[in-house]
Structure formats: structure tokens, C-alpha cells
Amino acid sequence: MKGGSAGLAISSGLMLTGMTQWGVRQSAEFESQMTSVERIVEYQDLPKEPPAESTPEKRPPIEWPTKGTIEFDHMYLQYAGSDKQVLKNIDCIIHSGEKIGIVGRTGAGKSSIIAALFRLTEIEGSIRIDGVDTKSIGLNDLRRKLSIIPQDPVVFSGSVRYNLDPFNEYSDDNIWKALEDVQLKAQVNNYKEKLSALITESGSNL
């Protein structure tokens, strides 16, 4: 074989190797990016939640709830995709001002009661708060009136104000009062930016 032919063969082989590596790399990147498409399709096929806003005739009064009496009326809960009822025939009244402890083993349905109150999943039967059936009003009207302190609280990356008032509904005085109630007023007051001070992920700088 002549030297020129050998050089051409070696050069072509090197180019082919590079193109093969590029093709494999592009294939892997394409497969990785398709994961995002699969997630979008998955979310697109999720069942839709009930309406966020109440119809005018069903919207509860602005001051609702005034007492906080909760009535469970033969309430059943079964998660989508499961044939097992997690909660069965819950029928009781929690009166205003009462402090109730719910005790049970893991998987007994304690967290499911919270899910039912917030309508994170639909139920059979009814739950009434101060006489208003939670299934009759929009999700926004319901969830804005309820509060929960979870075992693992979530702190967002953003300002102190955003974490306490993400919808910008309250005045600075209200925010400072809330911070004072949880004994964080002095700490936030020491920040140069005050309520605009940025909180890192999971609140690691608090």
C-alpha cells in the first residue's frame, strides 16, 4: 500500500471514530432530554382538580370560618388507583376550641384526614366546616382558610416576606406580628434587608 493511501485510511478511520463518538453522545443526550417530554405527557394526563374558584352562590362569607367546628359525616376516602378504602365511615364532630389528638400506627390514615380536609383527594360523604360543605366551594376559598404545620416544613428560596405572604395579601405590620409570635422578629430585624432578606434553600441561613 502506498504511503498516501495508508495516510488516507488512517485519517478516515480517525474521523469515523470521532463521528461515532459524537453520534453516541447525541443519542444519550436525546434520551436524557426525552425524560422531560415524558414528564410533561404524564402531567398532562393527570386527572384535573375540582374548580379553584367557588360559584357566586356557593362562595362562603369573607369571615368564614368564624368558629372552626368540623363535622365529618359518614366520610370515606379511597385514593385513585387503589381499591382499598383508607378511611371508612368517619362520623364525628370536632367542636370549636377543642384540641384533638389522632393516634395510630404508620399507614392508619392520620395524614389522610388532612388530605381530606384540604381536598387533596376527593371523598365520599361530607366534611362541613362551620356548616359549609367543603365539596361545595372552590379549592382556593377552602385552602386559604386552613393552616397546617407539617412534620417537615417547606421553606422556599426567596425573601422572608415571600415565604410568609406569597400572594402579597398582608401588610408589613401583619408580617412582623407573625414573626414576633414565633420569636423570629429579632433575628429578621438584624438582617440588613429586613423582610426582603433572602432565605436560602430549606432555610439553612435562618
UniProtKB/TrEMBL annotation:
Tree of life domain: Eukaryota
UniProt keyword annotation of Hydrolase present: no
Compositionally skewed regions (Basic and acidic residues) per UniProt: 43-61
Keywords linked to the UniProt accession: ATP-binding, Membrane, Nucleotide-binding, Transmembrane, Transmembrane helix
Pfam families linked to this entry: ABC_tran (PF00005)
GO CC terms: membrane
Ranges for domain ABC transporter: 87-190
Keyword Disulfide bond: no
GO molecular function annotation: ATP binding; ATP hydrolysis activity; ATPase-coupled transmembrane transporter activity
Chain positions covered by the region annotation Disordered: 43-64
The protein, known as: ABC transporter domain-containing protein
Source organism per UniProt: Euroglyphus maynei
The organism's taxonomic lineage, starting at the top: Eukaryota, Metazoa, Ecdysozoa, Arthropoda, Chelicerata
